[in-house]
Amino acid sequence: IAPEGPTNVWSLAIDGTITEETITPEESFGLKSHPLTAVSGGDPTDNAAPMRALLGDKLPHDHPVLNFVLLNSAALLFVSGKVATLPEGVEAARESIRSGKALDALERFAAATQAV
């Protein structure tokens, strides 16, 4: 989902009906829009510091990287049926970061991949 401007999405209902709509960070998620260049990454070392800050809940409320993660996490929570709306997904994702659950999940994932 684009952090700036519209994203076209299609929904498939149980009855087979396909609907198309356009979503934006502001109108659909309640998040500030940011240019794509504000969230472009670098090498793993460059990316590690912002990711640690994000998962440690140390980024400002409307930081571009945080909003990009919230956009896409909210969409995943919505399509999986964990939340009823995209804004609810934003709040659930934000709470996961605030509570440390997102960092804990990453640490468990890292430990599991190191064990393989």
UniProtKB/TrEMBL annotation:
Molecular-function GO terms, alphabetical: anthranilate phosphoribosyltransferase activity
Entry-linked Gene3D superfamilies: Nucleoside phosphorylase/phosphoribosyltransferase catalytic domain
Keyword terms of this UniProt record: Glycosyltransferase, Transferase
GO CC term, one of those recorded: cytosol
Keyword Cell membrane assigned: no
Domain Glycosyl transferase family: 2-103
Residue ranges of the TM segments: none
Superkingdom per UniProt: Eukaryota
Region named Disordered: 24-45
Lipid biosynthesis is among the record's keywords: no
One GO term of the biological process aspect: L-tryptophan biosynthetic process
Listed SUPFAM superfamilies: Nucleoside phosphorylase/phosphoribosyltransferase catalytic domain (SSF52418)
Name of the featured protein: Glycosyl transferase
